[in-house]
Specification:
This protein is an alpha/beta fold and 254 residues long. The chain has a single domain (3-250), classed as Alpha-Beta Barrel (TIM Barrel), CATH 3.20.20.140. It has helices spanning 19-28, 44-53, 75-84, 105-122, 134-144, 158-167, 183-191, 221-232, 236-250, and strands at 3-8, 31-36, 57-59, 91-97, 126-131, 149-151, 169-173, 197-199. Helix 2 links the parallel strand 2 (31-36) and strand 3 (57-59).
């Protein structure tokens, strides 16, 4: 069974003491690769180094919507960084996050648009973070449709998923789809077409059942796969094969 973690942060300091062991556990668990997602433009070299050291890893370029910076990146800044890091396979994560309110919503919107426009100029998929900001996120995506990309760590409604799918997006589910009280989210995971479904960990955060409370790691994507496969009534190997193929197609990886 070949699994792919479509969104993680294995470059974060949380893994500095045992990154090599984490990667070894991935191989043992059948997790053949992962996408390391950028949240801070100042740490692109860290992402690049990690992906060059460990086969099967790719990385993106982006600035998290709630990450505070002194100077906001415009499209030209993002394009220049993309030229500096030509191995990137996606732009993001980007989007809107009104949960913590660290960055003004209007600033987030401008940043979001700059990322989308960069992704479209480069013909790369965009990785969308949407938290407590469904209406504004979908409204901006509506301006640019069709949009190639993924709604990462999806936690919203069936209606939001259907609209995103209509734009051309993939939908990715993380550890929260395993939580006991998340029946509504599991129904969304059941309804998303198998050809547009991705799985992820968002590690080191949001560890799935039965690992809740622990540091999350890419190996645990197997628990996400198992829970969604159970919900859909299909073998987990079928779910793993489909989501891995989807990730490779979306991010144009061999």
């Amino acid at each position: 069974m070949a699994l792919f973690d479509s969104h993680c942060h294995l470059d974060f300091p949380h893994f500095d003491d045992d990154r090599t062991q984490v990667v070894a556990r991935m191989a043992e668990a059948g997790v053949g690769g992962a996408l390391l997602v950028s949240v801070d433009l100042d740490h692109m070299e860290r992402l690049q180094s990690c992906c060059r050291e460990y086969p099967g890893f790719s990385y993106s370029l982006g600035l998290h919507p709630n990450h505070e910076v002194e100077r906001e990146p415009d499209q030209q800044t993002l394009l220049a960084l993309a030229r500096r890091y030509p191995e990137i396979v996606a732009i993001g994560e980007t989007g809107l996050d009104y949960f913590r309110h660290r960055v003004d919503p209007e600033v987030q919107k401008r940043r979001f648009r700059a990322h989308i426009e960069t992704a479209q100029a480069l013909r790369l998929p965009v990785i969308i973070h949407m938290r407590d900001a469904d209406a504004d996120t979908l409204a901006i995506l509506r301006e640019y449709q069709p949009v190639c990309g993924v709604m990462h760590c999806f936690s919203s409604t069936m209606a939001a998923a259907e609209e995103a799918l209509g734009f051309g997006m993939y939908i990715s589910f993380s550890g929260n789809v395993t939580f006991k009280r998340n029946d509504a989210l599991r129904e969304v995971a059941k309804a998303v077409p198998l050809g547009r479904l991705l799985i992820e960990t968002d590690s080191p955060y949001l560890a799935p059942v039965p690992m809740r409370g622990k540091r999350n790691e890419p190996t645990f994507v197997a628990h996400v796969a198992a829970r969604i496969a159970e919900t859909r009534g299909i073998p987990v190997a079928e779910l793993a094969a489909a989501t891995t193929a989807n990730a490779k197609a979306l991010f144009k990886m061999p």
